[in-house]
User: Fold these one by one.
Assistant:
Number 1:
Amino acid sequence: MTLPDLVFLLSALATAGTLVRGIYLLARRRGAQAVRVARRWAVGAAAYFAILVIVSFTQPQRVVMVGAENCADDWCITVDSVTYADTIGGERAAGRWLIVHARVSSHMRARRQSEPDAYGYLIDAAGTVIQQSERGQRSLERTGRAGNPLGAFVEPDGAFAGNLVFDVHREAGRVGFVKERRSRFPGTIIIDDGTSLFHKRTIVPIDVNGIP
């Protein structure tokens, strides 16, 4: 458990304790005390979220190069390589198919694990998000080259391959691959978490200038 995780856990316990204390005081008709308890909690909560926002804005964006692991605790994803194709299984791209060859691995030895809501997208220099191409992904699956989805279970100390397809324009320039979670709670309110409020997302840079 990291220090931010511990701080979040202690804050959650303090919030639960404050709620129980407040209900008890109200039940005993001690409203003034309940208000003081609520005010102390509000001051602490404001300080917590101020730290969260400051850390999110001041932390530089983390860049992970192709071939390097990007880990969340014991769950890791690695972009091993990137390839291009005009067609996949007979399906032609509007621009050019960009296939991200990813590897999901686990450093947990006790049991298998998954990040069931994990997915990936590309983001260009202008901040435009390029989502996975459903048409391209289905074609890759039909050819038997898709591998496992990112949210599949990975065995203890094991790994699996998964390939993600994007339709990019030849003049797209430099893009970044981002691994994201559809459900961001509780990460959104954990200080320095990769998905915390206003936190810059970790990217894997991909240069698509001069796509062959």
Number 2:
Amino acid sequence: MTHKSLISEPFTSGARQTNSERINMKLSVKSLGALVAIGVIFGCGGAGGTGGLATVAGVVLDTNGEIVRNARVFTTAKTTFTNSSGAFVLESVDEGIVRLNAQLTIGGVNYVGENHVETFANERTKSLIIVIGRQNQAATMEGLVTDRFGAPLEKARVHANAGYLGSSFTLTDQSGRYSMGGLFPGSTYDVQASGRTYISDTSALNFSAGQRITHNFVLDDAGSPTLPAPNNLSAVVWTAPRVNTSSNMPLRANGVKDSIRKLLDTKRGERHQGKGKRPKNSAGNNPIEVDLFWDTYRNDNLLGFGIYRGTSQTGNTTGIEFFADPLANFFADSDRILNENTNYYYEVTALNTNYPDFNNSESDFSNRYGVRPIGDMTLRNINTGPLRFNWNSCRDAEKYTVFLFSNYPDLGVSALWPFDAGSTAAATTTGTSLVYTGPGLVSGRKYYYVVLALANADDSRSISAVGSFNAP
């Protein structure tokens, strides 16, 4: 039986238009400037690529959705490590479909994970998430993707998502077969096979430790339904110390977003979890990153999301990326053009599996949400007797919160102070110093801390490097 190859057209990126006007604008996937397309080119090269070199930026999470520091991230030819925000940057990666693995050993226990990413020469791939868990718990899903007549589909996209904001992803081979590892027990995964001009096939699966599941997908012919717009778009913007994660040594010099998320992001609930990626455009040449969140969106006609950005509350926005993950509810904009003291406004659309061939293949816009990056957060030496934390004023900050840790904040380490949302106020001030009032410290023991600057209803955030001291 012959197979079918799923070939798609590039994302339509352009100035904010009406739906009918946007559908008629078909810009190249290699658009100049800030326009980037990373999603729907199912036929864009294999693992060997075409010789072009790309950059992959991402974040490593554990099975609870917490960031993982000091994890080794690697391809067959390149290696890097995650920094203390769980972020990594892997440069000089082949163009095409690339497999990335993550590995970390703590206390003799080996943790592993994997994901695939589609890369383009001279471009930086965003929003890649790798989930790791105990190696002896990792499960595998494999099977066949066919059309409704039983013909195998080559380069169909297979996703699996257990609520970690991004999905594990792979493609089918020439025989329509796929294999996906790095799946773990304890969560229900939404699994989905999709392809342009086909209705997706979606299921919910649970895995046992070490299990190998065979799960086949059948894709029916797509109609062209009008999809509803994504709901409840929100965003936060981070300024964080620049870290070169291309080193072959573990890095410990950035933020601790997992503890901060637990304390600050209750208004976003489970939608607001780990973050990553590192552009370089604060006044101090430090990274600025905007994290977008929207309600979980499930529709078998969904191909992915269009991400739009502008600098005006009411003016035009421009399509900056097609995000080819129909199970996601998170996107990180790590564009190097982002600058502090500038307003950025975002909208998101849903794209159906016929996009861009029909006038109703893109939804209306979501609500528009704006953020404004603030300045760099830097530390000064602490005082003792009593213990006092000191820092420099951060541009446009309205308040500051100190986070203290009894161990370096590696996998599973939570803040000692503040330890819950009710105690945040005790560790917060509008000034540039704060006397410690938390639990008693062990004299001579080493402790670690960061200071977080906040503004604009906590949507604007700037985090210091990790500081340390020996308790008096």
Number 3:
Amino acid sequence: MSHEILINVTPREVRVALLENGVLQEIHIERSLRQGVLGNIYKGKINRLLPGIQAAFVDIGLERSAFLHISDLRDYQNLASQSSDSPIDIRDVLQVGQELWVQVYKDPLGSKGARLTTLFTIPSRYLVLTPGIFEMTVSQKISDEAERQRLLDLTTPGEQGGYIFRTAAEGVDRAELMIDKEFLTALWTDISIRAEKAKAGDLIYTEIPIILRVLRDLAGHDIERILIDHAPSMQDMKNFSGTYAPAFAEKIEYYAEKRPIFDIYSVEDELQKALSRKVHLKSGGHLIFDQTEAMITIDVNTGSYLGHANLEQTIFKTNLEAVEVIARQVRLRNLGGIIIIDFIDMVDPNHKAHLIASLRAALAKDHVRVEVSELTSLGLVQMTRKRTRESLEHVLCVSCPLCQRRGSIKSYATVCYEIFRELKRVAENYQWPGFWIIAEKGTVNFLLEEESSMLADVEAQLGKPVKLQVEPSYTQEQYDILPLETKIF
């Protein structure tokens, strides 16, 4: 399977697209006006303790206070083992006004502030340093036991902490790992010095820019080419690669054509489709994605697909086709948290087992940790995907000013009946000679046509004239009722 990375750089935005066999699988976007803080280390100051949920709000210099739970403290496990008789109280561990180093492990999402931890992780190309935790572990993505053991035998914890072998470390020799280890040791020493001098709210360590994170986090052994359309950024990538990822230096190419780089593989079109609620399957079926505050739901439907065999085979084929599309869309849309999939109900237990196995296999390509449960008694599949950054929809879109994320707006009939009720309320409270109804054109037309008799009845009940005026700037749910003497322009 061929893999390519396309990078589009503009003064205000950098977009990185990961393609597999020419098909878009992941998109990463970083904007100068809304840069993420994931991985940054700050000198924080506790401004509030919440004993009820065993957490603290920490001021790290951002717009909103960040959230630190007691379980995200480095010494939590030791403290928990020492006080087995009663739960740990966060007030015995932290105090308001206390300063401490913290790292962001979840970007601010929606109205929620950033999530913090004192379990620091400092990544490089092949290793992740875990300061203060002297253990050696291997990424779960490396499944070969012999390779896992080989890596563990290559190095030991350092003076500052242990290490996690990243997926990219598979097959790497000891010399390259030692370069990474020395780099992380020097980096953590520098971070420690800066932290000692920092004041509350200061940024101590910041993650590298997205164009360099590509080489560290996305560029695996199977990447054949990295195309970037900005010459200075391309040179920065080559310099970084020469030091930390020499294998990719020759794979980085400058794209100098006039045609936009994202038009090569229809990336722009795929991005537009990824913002749609409905995703079509080749067979004629379709998926419906609904993203809420609590979870994401995915509904699988046969649509126009009728099949050629029996009903069970038709359903099974649709569900299997949906699995590949779901796995891709979850990555592309960067959906995180709880995800509920409502596959079409199947009877055959072998089909059910095959479906779950296929879903797990399809999701195994994801760089983010995903866990899939068995089918529930209601025929639903529950899965979780680690959420660290905002979804594609939240990055590119804002709430609809009409429906406010309800996904629907009031019908003309509903708005008209509200107007009639409001007219009666106004008439009881104000002695106006008559009434103006100011509304959107569709509402006014509905009042004059479908509800003309009702409008006449209300006018007769009030004993006062009611006139209508179109206001082009109003939305379907907006209207005003004014006294008749008001001059309407």
Number 4:
Amino acid sequence: MCSSSLCSNNFVFLGELGCGKSEIALNKAISLAAQGKNVCFVDLDMTKPLFRSRDVSKMLDDKGISVCYSDQFMDAPVSNVGIEYPLKNKEIFTVLDVGGNETGARAIGRYRQILQDSGTLFYYVINPYRAWAGTIEHIDGVLGTILKAARVDLESIEFVANPNLGINTTTEDVIKGYYTLKNMLEPYAEISFCTAMNELSESAGEQIDVPVIPLELYLQYPWEK
């Protein structure tokens, strides 16, 4: 998704609850598999019952992607079974979908040294249309909490804009959302890339000053399909 991704095998997607990181992580894993890579997808989402990557594990398996997650009962802790091996294996491209807020982020904190040693790329996804991303104060508050729990330094983060309002999103929504977020972050950080649904990515990309990555939507309500 960026030039630095060419030299990394591990990709971690973080962000506030409902920002769309699961969709982006799924697209990344599927893109890698389409290139013939050996891909392991790790679902560490422990904060919501809907729109979890594990819900499309059959689809991922059909594409040759191994899926790793632990079943959860109520609020019971989730163990990270099978994560250390793919993270250390240079022959495996590992994509981690980390659950929103500090609960999910804490799950990768114990692997801090492995992640650092392997040159892992950390992406922090922000959807400017979410209520808790409406001001720089809200963004900073959630970001700080997540990074502290994940034990990730701010300098290691690449910011991703995901100006998405669901299946009714328009090109204008993408452009407006991107520049709203850019103006909020600009004094402090840069956005590495923006995402948009496949049919909007080309038109939005003509008016956005960072790469716009097209997304296929895999996590939808049945009536949206």
